[in-house]
Input
Amino acid sequence: MKKNTSKLLDVIFENLIWLLVAAGLIIFSSLSSSFRSPNNLASLLYRSAALGLLVLGQSFTMITGNFDLSSESGLGLTAMVAALALASADNGGLGWEVSPFVAIVLMIGVGLLIGLINGLLITRLKMNNLIVTIAMQMILRGLVYIISPGSTASFFPKAFDWLGGGTLFKIPLERGFFSFPVATLFVILIFVVSHIITRYTQFGRNMYAVGSNLTAAKDAGIDTDKIVRIVYLIDGLCMALAGLLAAGRLDSATPRTGAGLTFPVQAAAVIGGISMAGGRGNMIGALGGLMLWSILDNGLSIMKVSPFWIETSRGLILLFAVWLDAVKVKKVHQRSLIDILLQSTIGLKDKTIVKN
Amino acid sequence: MNTTEKVMERTPILSVEGVSKAFPGVQALTSVDFCVMDGEIHGLVGKNGAGKSTLMAILMGILEPNEGTIIIGDQQFHAMSPKEAIEKGIAYVPQHVAMMDSLTVAENILAGELPKTKSGFVNWKKVNSEAKERLDRLGLEMDVTKKVEGLGVAEQTMLAIAKALFGDAKLIILDEPTASLSRTDINRLFAFVKSLKDKGGSFIYISHHLEEVFEICDRVTVLRDGHIVGTADVAEIDVPKLIVMMVGEDVEDYTRESTCEDETVMVLNGLERRGYYENINLELHKGEIIGLTGLQGCGVEQLGKGLFGLEPRGIGEIILADKKFTAVRPIESFNQGLAYLPQDRYRYGLVGLRSVRENVTYPILNKLVRLMNLINGKEEKIIVNKYIGELDIKTPSQEQPARLLSGGNQQKVVFAKLASTQPSVLVLHEPTQGVDVRAKMDIFRIIDAMAAQGVAIIIISTEIRELIGVCDRILVMNDGRLTSEFKKGEKDMTPEKILAAIEGGKINE
Output
């Protein structure tokens, strides 16, 4: 009986994020009619789609016990590169006016290059991942300013904007239309794909092994450095896709595109249960973190809460999430410490786990 | 108890009476009486798991005994807190001293009480002169402006002892201080400790090097399986007697029939890694179990890791199953038929947070992945189930996080992982460490069964009795060379002879 309750508590603990998401949806829906309008609900993830892709990239790196603080600038650089190549000279571009396909390939190339550099610096030169990516954040943001004309580059082809700003269905409502943003669908889809990758592939499983116990992973024959390099490549790809979503939604790119997203990215990932200590959390949880973040943002602004309070509430949620993470880590440590004391130093202890 | 006149004049500085300590499932100490006199160096010896660490942990206030008393001076305690233990003057100097490495010797000595100038800045001149003066009083010569990370291991140990004395320590516990020292450093350390003894300091000296005990200690106490076997004056005892006291004769051993076949599986030819081992020649047969043993730091550990590719292997040739063994990384070793069980399963063997299932299949996932790198879950479950059954791993399910299993079952999970790679050679490093007696028997049965299937097995271990039970041959390594060989069935294969061979190299120096 007691065991069952503690198991139930564990399940609740693990899925807390979805309870919070549900609570947020219910509370804001009951408080505000514009929040619960179908269009608003469908666009919750639309506005934070670019953030979502960065959260995804961050989750990949964090599961292996690494960080990426450079992604906001990676988003900015890829968006700017595409904008310069796409926009006409009148609209702040270089006047090449390449096809959307070429622009997207270009962005992805830049993103992968950033990821490659991050990964190589961290695995080959054994540099600290936190500092490497902070440096990259500065370098990349500097590059954005260097290559940009200093102003906005805008007016891209429709096809380029489709993923970030397009809509899918148009269902007539009593007033106006209900339309479903492509970006929302895309974000959910790519999170689900990532979940499958991390959960059901060899690569995904090795990622968790690297994050939870690096030395044991090496002993089990895993090429840990390679895993980390691939993770940063994926992270780079995520930056490029985030750049695509951001530039597409706004139909423009400025030198400041993406600036200031680093901390929201961290926050959403941690709120979604991705552990700062590595090796724990999953992509669906991270999606929950992103949703809670968006709900809070959207709900509070619709209710005309002062932006200062919005910022404060974000901080409180983040504190709460980090506290949860700390509790989990502490639980693990306590258990393993007791285990080590009982079994290793003093030796000779067999706590047989009783089958039910 | 035999005591010389010299000791009789002295009063006990610390004694414990009737101390017992039980952990769930094991009696670590049983009514232990132990006493250290003022101004003596008291040796404490015993095998791994004899209860030395438990006893020391009680003296340091880390563990609370179930019964018994600790007497320091004229005060009686049931248990102490670590803080009390330090206040009573008990200090512990571990094998690897932890100090503020990037600070100077002087700063380490005066940490927390750095003299200040009038204006509140640190008075560096005074720091250095004061530190120098304190060291001089102990007769320890050392450059106080040198950073601690630049000191040798022996100097760091001496500095730690000195620091403990500045903190008014009366009894200093030295835990294997010589394990990684050269003979000259040992001499210097011993000279220093003896000079402190002459000034009235008391020491408990824990060591596996028995001849050192005779070199430096006044008396020696032997612990075995949580009992005090006896305390003796070193003048009235010799190494063989001490070994008999340590090993005892009441241990139940695992025995097996040899499954060794004629066919050679692996040949090591002149393996050498400078500073660790040299001229290693070894022929391993199908189904043979070889024991490799030696003192800490003799090179067996590096040899095991080197074979698997965790550390550089050095030069020399290895033939495995008629092919040249070229693996330099663990995954290549697995693929070429060599698997390795690391000593510390918590740190190296297991990914504790992940499930039993995942832990078993890490090295063989390559063979389980299908289209798009997706893992064939069904097949994986079948394989894992097979090993859970074969090795009798007690777990509620395959999905149980590995860290929540008991020590013995965790070790079986690591075995399952290795067995799943279907190796032809298996290198085991202390396979029975930290598992209970029953699980030990299980592990021996697993080793036995694998040998019967034709796997050649190398066991690197310091548990000599266990080695004698399972091994066809036991090789002793001394300072990086294989110096003696004992074969099953020969009458020389006794714990005493092997221990003597292990110690042997040191005596000859």
